[in-house]
Structures are given as structure tokens and as C-alpha cells.
Amino acid sequence: MIVKRDKLTFWERLYLPAIIGGFKVTLRHFFNKKVTMQYPEEKWVVPPGYRGAPYLVKDQADRTKCVSCQLCEFVCPPKAIRITPPGPQGSPEVGNVEKAPKEFEINMLRCIFCGFCQEVCPEEAIFLMKDYSLTGTSRGEMIYNKEKLLSLGGVHQDKIQKWKHKAEEAKEQGVAP
Ligand code: SF4
Ligand code: SF4
After folding, report:
1. Which of 57, 74, 76, 83 is the pocket-test mutation for ligand 2 (most atoms within 8 Å of CB)?
2. pLDDT tens digits, residue range 150-166?
3. Domain 46-158 - what CATH class?
């Protein structure tokens, strides 16, 4: 079966109407509201409670809050956390913190941002923050060590400062201990 082609009109043979039509569409989009995000310079503003990457935090006195209880390591579904406790000879890092970890690593390639570590932590030492875009040039770079986790986590403003010495607290409040 032979399909008969319709003959092109003079205007169609010029191709100019089709080109002008294309330009009209481009021009319309040119003045439309821009919807393209200039990532990574621009990033999404995530809502409160968003579960991003987990980081360690310090308290207001610059103490590592983590006490190496290893609950988060135990509960982490993909086994992304690896903690090295200070051991029996380990001395407190600062103040009265009895068992600050010697090393604390989170493999961000394994982490599924589930939030179990934050929920289980008895010391409020680990929090899921707002970072959702983690990059690195090697697998090793994606294993965050204690220093990196603490620097990214920053300071947590605790209402109850568990490790604060009673005498220190009384002095600040101006009462005898
Ligand atoms: S957020 Fe979940 S997967 Fe990631 S380190 Fe914590 S417990 Fe593990
Ligand atoms: S982050 Fe919390 S749960 Fe994990 S070892 Fe430290 S104190 Fe324990």
C-alpha cells in the first residue's frame, strides 16, 4: 500500500513559520518564573524535623557528650557506626565525662538516615542534622571520624548539664553548695 503524501504549501516549504513558532515558545519560557535550582550553590530548605546526616555534639562546656555506651552501634540497622571505647586505662577526655570514645566513625555510605541512633542515645550526644547532600572523592572520605562528626555537629544547648559539678552550679547561682 502506498501512502500519498500531502503536498507542502508555499509557507510550509519556507520553514519560517515553524522556526518563528519555536522562537515564540522559547521567548514565553524566557519570561516565565525560573524553576531550575542552581545546585549546589542553591539548596533545598529542609523542614524542621528533617532527618539528615547524623553528627556528634558537644555540650556548652566543650565536652564530648558521648560516653561510648555503644547502644547506637548496636541498634544501627546497616552497621554504619563503629566505636572504639577508651578501654579500662582510658582517662576522661574532659571534666567528669567518664568514657568519651577514643574513636567514633560513621560510614555515611552505609547510613540510611533512619534516626535510630538519635532515638536510642541516652546522652543526647548524636543528632540527625539537616545535611542531605554528602559528597566525597573516595569511599574512605565518606567514613567520618570523631573529629569531623564533632565539628559538623557543633554545640548542643543542653538545659540540664549532667556533667556540671554541683559546686560550680551553686557558685553560678550564687548559693552555698
Ligand atoms: S541514622 Fe540509622 S543508619 Fe545512620 S548511623 Fe544512625 S542508626 Fe545507623
Ligand atoms: S552516641 Fe549516644 S548511644 Fe552512641 S555510644 Fe555515644 S552515648 Fe552511646
Report:
1. 83
2. 999 999 988 877 666 66
3. alpha beta
